[in-house]
Each structure stands twice: as structure tokens, then as C-alpha cells.
């Protein structure tokens, strides 16, 4: 089938922001006297900010009010935004720019489909905001992955039917969102090999990615 659109997740596909999330959560946890390490941080991948906070608070020595939780989540996000302001194009993951150049030459629409509410400033820092024909992030949706809303809206903004778009994701659970949207999927990195992926790629520098649009 000829695909006319490519929809990319942000974290883990275009750039890795895990370290910035970790640092922001670690500062908060240390201040509250709550144990937090990289193993716990792995449980936060693809999880909403408030759900992430609840996981961290599992090790807290006291209960927190909803007001306190909201304040803590906002403080974490504020610190995270300070950290990601230092992102540079050097942090783009392998193969991103070459693939975008290829897709542009082929006339294939490029969209971002991310649940992050910080996606647009990250794209700006990476110097690739103008590479996208459509951007859908956490500010545009009411339902996060694995609900298909983010991908369905990306296809709509590209002006394409969902089945003519291909999704690139790095998490098995989020591939389900692509499937529910009616799209074919490529698992990038650790998500490869699962039953929801039509293609499994090491990263976007994997030569097999070009076969999708051949």
C-alpha cells in the first residue's frame, strides 16, 4: 500500500527526554525525602504527570492532599521545562533528519503525534519545528494514548485517511493507539518484536524504514 503520511511520536523516536524527566522528578523526590531511582523512573514512561507522581508517592512517608499533589506536579513540570530549554539539535536521535528529507522529497506528509504538552518548545529547541506539516500534542487532545485520538487528529490535520498514514512509536502500549486509529505501525527501539508492530526498527537510521515508503 502507498502511504502518504508519516506520524511520529516524540520521546524515544525523535529525541530522548527521559533524562530530563528523571532529573526533574529526582529533585522533587529528594526534596520530599522520597526514594527515587532510575528503575522507578522506568515505570513512568508513557504515563501521565499525575499518574507518575502517584507512583513516586508510593514510597512517601505520609499522605499528600490533592492540593499538594497538584502543586508538586506543576513544580516538576516547571523544572522540566527549564531543563529541556537546553536541548540542542545535537540530541536528535539517529536517522531523523535523513528520513525527513526523504519523506519530503517523496511528497509524504510529516506529522507529530505526541501526548506531551511540551512538544512544541522541544521541536523548537531541536530546530525541526518547520519540518512538520501537522503537529498534535497533549494540548490538543482530551484522551491520551492508548486512545487513538492523537493519531486520528494527526491524520485529519494532514488531510489524509488514517489507513494512508504510518505511525512510528517506541512503546508497545502506544502502538495500540496507532492500531486503533487504523494505521500501520513501526516499533522503534525497545518496542520492536511485539505483535502490534508491522515493522521493527533499531532506530530511524535503520535502512528498513525506507522500505515502508518504497
Can you offer a commentary on this structure?
By secondary structure, this protein is of the alpha/beta class. Helices cover 40% and strands 12% of the residues. It has helices spanning 18-32, 38-42, 49-56, 66-84, 96-106, 119-126, 149-158, 172-180; strands spanning 5-8, 109-113, 134-136, 165-169, 184-188, 199-201. The protein has a 6-stranded parallel beta sheet. Strand 2, helix 6 (119-126) and strand 3 (134-136) form a beta-alpha-beta unit. Helix 1 crosses helix 4.
Top keywords for this entry?
alpha/beta, 6-stranded parallel sheet, 8 helices, 214 residues, 6 strands, 40% helix, 12% strand, elongated
Structure at a glance:
With 214 residues, this protein is an alpha/beta fold. The protein is built from 8 helices and 6 strands, in the order βαααααβαβαβαββ.
Amino acid at each position: 500500500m502507498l502511504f502518504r503520511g508519516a506520524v511520529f511520536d516524540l520521546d524515544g523516536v525523535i529525541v530522548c527526554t527521559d533524562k530530563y524527566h528523571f532529573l526533574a522528578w529526582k529533585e522533587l523526590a529528594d526534596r520530599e525525602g522520597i526514594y527515587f531511582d532510575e528503575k522507578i523512573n522506568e515505570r513512568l514512561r508513557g504515563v501521565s504527570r499525575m499518574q507518575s507522581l502517584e507512583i513516586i508517592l508510593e514510597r512517601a512517608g505520609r499522605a499528600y492532599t490533592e492540593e499538594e499533589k497538584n502543586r508538586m506536579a506543576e513544580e516538576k513540570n516547571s523544572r522540566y521545562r527549564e531543563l529541556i530549554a537546553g536541548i540542542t539539535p545535537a540530541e536528535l536521535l539517529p536517522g531523523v533528519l535523513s528520513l525527513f528529507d526523504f519523506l519530503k522529497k517523496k511528497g509524504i506528509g510529516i506529522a507529530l503525534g505526541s501526548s506531551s504538552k511540551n512538544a512544541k518548545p522541544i521541536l523548537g529547541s531541536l530546530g525541526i519545528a518547520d519540518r512538520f506539516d501537522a503537529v498534535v500534542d497533549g494540548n490538543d487532545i482530551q484522551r491520551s494514548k492508548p486512545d487513538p485520538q492523537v493519531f486520528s487528529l494527526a491524520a485529519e490535520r494532514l488531510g489524509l485517511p488514517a489507513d494512508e498514514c504510518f505511525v512510528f512509536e517506541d512503546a508497545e502500549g502506544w502502538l495500540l493507539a496507532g492500531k486503533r486509529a487504523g494505521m500501520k505501525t513501526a516499533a522503534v527501539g525497545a518496542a520492536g518484536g511485539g505483535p502490534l508492530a508491522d515493522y521493527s526498527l533499531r532506530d530511524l537510521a535503520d535502512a528498513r524504514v525506507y522500505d515502508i515508503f518504497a
